[in-house]
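Practice problem: predict the structure.
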Amino acid sequence: MSRYARATRSRLGPWSLLRSVAGQAFVLQLLLTLVLVAAAVVAVAVDAHKHSTLDARRRSLAVAETLAHSPGMARAISDDKPTPQLESHAEATRKGSGVDSVVVFDTHGIRLTHPETPLIGKRIVGPAGLVRDELNGKTITETFRASQGPSVVSAVPVTKADGVFIGGVSVGVKVGNVNSAVDRRLPLLLGSGAGALALATGGTALLGVGDMAGGVPDRVGGQL
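Answer:
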């Protein structure tokens, strides 16, 4: 590059380069890279939340089915004093499986167990249609406001050997805990996104600088 070209570039400064076609292309490439990386991070975060919710549904249903079909469950519910027989088993299941609530209820929807003991003896809560399905012996898995707040809840009926419905098991996972599982992944997602953005920006900058470097032609005595 001639002394004239270098002097010209020095006078023009970086702003003139950004105003050039190559400079504008660089800015557009940078913005496009930022949008693409941000969109990718959001998509991954949404997908992580979806999978966490799906995992909560599967886990709550699996725990409810296991407890509802466990030996002695039907006999314990039918006992005159079911809570003493069921409470320790329900709490051990809750703690061992990592769910937030394990509730055994009778045909009237009265709780026989609950991690919050003041709620034992009170009726299960939820949308009227879902409660009706539970008391009709249907298996449900839904997200709604339960006794512990918004939760992913699965309920499985308990029946006698002859198939007669005598109660059910409801298992809940708080939505807040589902979101917390996603939040724990966010630093990794953001870090990966920032790294991808830095690499993409660096590559774009190198190409842009190369383009802009050729934007001011050498001049010798005013001639090309």
